[in-house]
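INFO batch 0412 | record 1 of 1 | parsing
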Amino acid sequence: MILISGRSELDNAALVAKKFDTNHHELKASANQIIDIFDKLVYQYDDPFSDAANIPLYLLAKACSADKTVILQGDGGDEFFGGYRRYNVLDWENFWKIASTLAYKIIPSNEWSIRMKRISNILKQDDAMKMALYITEDVPYESPYEILNSDYKNLISSEDPFKAYKKFNQDYKDFDIVQRMMFADVQILLNHTYLEKVDKATMLCSMEARVPFLDNELTDFMLNLPSSYKIKRGQKKYLLRKALRGLIPDQILDGKKEDLMCHIKYG
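INFO prediction complete | emitting tokens
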């Protein structure tokens, strides 16, 4: 287990290790380690890369590489089985339109009200922009272009940063908005960020990462299932939870999803 934030899942990792009688190891990263490996990762990724989870992933791969050459990794579970909060919001869109607007106008300004303001404004957009704004960190009421001077603004004014989202929205117009969001996540977020993160961090340690959730037959099956099998009555990953109930401890299946991948178990 690598722990780089205060939100520890060490107890959950130990619970799973005990359940399956695996060798449990805990590796805690320090700020000094991160400074030492930063240059290596910048060189390895060779392009601007914003997913900080590559740091614990690299440390994990380095620790495992002493006696392992192949590891299993869990990418794809959220995108194909419906694990992100945005799928739930889009599935209950009418409710969240009202609830988020009321929440940010009534609640004093804090992290929660800021999030509700963002959701409220996203849900007022057309479907293509909903997908674009949910995947990115952009908001419709604050443009990142405002930090640029007029010359740079003019230089990029003809570019549409949301072109891919508009294309996917049109390509998958016969599916509901939750399915379209999942398809966009798979092709943009998973394909161009998460898999690159895993591949480059593990290969730097001469390791091969395999992703069983991206098995061809499994992904074909999941892509063709209606979103109601993935998000049901507000429960994310409904089908996956149902399939694993009784195999994985309920504390893990029903636990809160962390926003950042800060804790990774190996053993």
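INFO post-check: Residues 177-203 form the longest helix (27 residues).
INFO record closed
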